[in-house]
Every structure is written in structure tokens, then in C-alpha cells.
Amino acid sequence: MSAVLLSGWRMRAVMLSVIAAVVLYLGVALWAGAAEVWHALALVGIGGLLLALSLSLVNYSLRFTRWQLYLRRLGHHVPLRRSAHIYLAGFALTTTPGKAGEALRGVLLKRRHVPYTDSFAAFVSERLSDLIAVVLLSMLGFTLVAQGGWLILAGASAVALALVILSWRRPLARLQTWTDRPGQRLWRTVHHLATILLQARRCHRPTLLAGATILSVVAWSAEALAFWWILNAMGFEASFAFAAFVFALAMLAGALSFLPGGLGGTEAVMVGLLLLHDMPAADAVAATMLIRFTTLWFAVILGLMALGTNPEARGREQPEATA
To answer: 266 near 165, Cβ under 8 Å?
Structure first.
């Protein structure tokens, strides 16, 4: 595994998130009753686990398709297989605040001559597209559930604010020009930020925005479907709209908390909503642990495997230009 890209604070971030998750899940399992939680997990079985993992792969595949659309819109044609390898490697640092560690893809793409401003613009566009999808999914079951309105409003407000900022082409261009002052760190940082936002504008033209939103909604619906399957396998009769609402609202809470991978915030909201709707505590904890393993932690495992076998991470490859 790359001694450079997965060392220092990056390795500490991964290890601390794993330790925190183990402590958190063990604590809530003991609180709910370890034997009861294990029984609930057994109800899902290996078949249910494999189904959930398969639906997560659908989610990752659709999000990668969206990533490729962003890169192509920015003028970069990274070979499909290599781009997929780099995209998966970014999941290694998903358990960082706001998933910021996934910007690791920019480091790997830089070695394929993709500027940081472009890869970060694609990253920002991804996060915004995910937020749009999660807000839309949370609205799906809002008529069924009274809780969580303020979270949905906060998410929708964040989306609206981001889209408004991206619509300010002239102010952003002027800011970019005005802060182009070599040697001054603050101005250089603001200059790069303005450049990234200007590039991200290109990923939010109406047609691409509509296509990316559809991909995002379907991608996150796949994981919501896995959550629905898990709930019903445990004997909790729930509609897909309810399952999608609980799943999406928990994801939204985790994203807005800026906790590493939403760890703690996502689980608390998910368990809390299930308890409010009369699901036994052990089942609520088991369902939450299982969906988090098959979504968040499955992605981290795949990311670590991809990073460990990535030529760009090892510095072994001097690839051709991609733009």
C-alpha cells in the first residue's frame, strides 16, 4: 500500500474512525441486548447480506458513471478501467469530515495530468449532487413521518445556496482575477476556490444537472431498497417510502453534522426514527449496523483494496496526458 498516500494523518483518520465505529456499535449492541441484536442479524441471513452488498455496488457504479460525466465535461478522458480504480481508491478516506478525504482522487488524477482545480470541481459537484438526491429521497416519505422537517429544510437550503453561488459567474470570475496575487497564501487560496467553483459551474449546466440528479437519486435509492429489504426481513413491515425517508434523513443528518463519515449522527437518527415507529430496540440497532456495514464500511474496504493496488498511488506509472 502506498506509504505516502495512506500514512500520517490519513492512516490515523482511518484507524480512529474504525476504532470509533467498533466502540459505538459495541456500545449500542450491549444497550439493546447483544443476544437480541445477533438474533435480528441472523434473520437477514447471508442471502440478505449479499443482496445489500450488491445494491451498494449498484450505488457505487452509478456514482462512478456520474463522476465520468463530470470529468468528460471538464475535458478529461481518463481510461474507464483506470478511472474506476482511482474512483474506488477515493473511498478509502470516506470516513473523514464531509467525506473530504475522497478528494484523494485528485492526487491520483494529478499523476494523469488532471489539474487539482478540475478534480476538486468534480468532487464538489459530486457532494452537491449527493445532497440533492438525499434531500429528494427524504421528501419521499415526509408525508408519512412527522419528524425531521428541520433537517430537510436545512438540506434544501444548503442545496439552494450552493446553486445560487454557482450561478454567479461574473462575481466568481472577478474574484478569481482580483485574488490572482502570487506569493500571498490567503489570496492564492481564495483564487483557487474561485477557480474550482467556476469549473464546477460547467458540471451544473441544466442538461448535465438533470442527468446527474437522476443518476444520484437512483444510486441512493438502491441503498434505500437494501434498507427496506433488511427491515422487512426482520419482520418490521415498512413501505419503501418509509425506509427511503429514514435512510435518507439519517444520511442527511450525517452529512450536515460533518462528523467523519457521518459516524454517530447517522446511526443516532436512524435508530431514533425506527424506535419512534415502534421497532424493537435490538432490531433497530441491528438494521442500522447492517446497513452501515453494507454501505459505508463496504466502501471503505473496497477503497483500501483499490488504493493498495493503484499504480498512481505507488508512483510506478507515468501516464500520458488525458486532456
So the answer is: no
| Paired strand residues for 97 | 260
Q: How many domains would you assign to the chain? A: 1
How buried is residue 170: exposed, middle or buried, by Cβ count under 10 Å (0-12/13-18/19+)? exposed
Owner of C-alpha cell 454517530: 264
Residue 320 CB neighbours (<10 A): 7
Give the number of other Cβ atoms within 10 Å of residue 19's Cβ: 10
Specify the 3-state DSSP secondary structure of 320: coil
**What pLDDT, in 10s, does the model give residues 57-70?**
999 999 999 999 99
Enclosing domain of residue 37: 9-314
- Model confidence at 23, pLDDT cuts 50, 70, 90, reads confident
Residue type, 288: T
Is the pLDDT score of 36 beyond 90? no
**What CA–CA distances, in Å, run from 218 to 60, 142, 197?**
11, 18, 26
Bridge partners (DSSP) listed for residue 260: 97
Percent of the residues in the chain that have a pLDDT greater than 90, as a whole number: 52
Question: Quick check: 313 pLDDT over 70?
Answer: no
SS3 at position 241: helix
Contacts of 9 by beta carbon, 8 Å cutoff, 6+ apart: none
Query: Using CA atoms, how far apart are residues 157 and 13, in angstroms rounded to an integer?
Result: 30
Collapse the DSSP code of 112 into the 3-class scheme (helix H, G, I; strand E, B; otherwise coil) and give the result: coil
pLDDT at 315: 55
CA distance 95 to 99: 6
76 domain-assigned: yes
pLDDT band (50, 70, 90) for residue 179: confident
Pick the closest to residue 229 from 29, 58, 32, 43 (CA basis): 43
Q: Is residue 274 part of a domain?
A: yes
- Please give the single-letter amino acid code of residue 42: A
Residue 145 lies in a domain: yes
Whose cell is 477557480? That residue is 195
d(CA 78, CA 114): 9
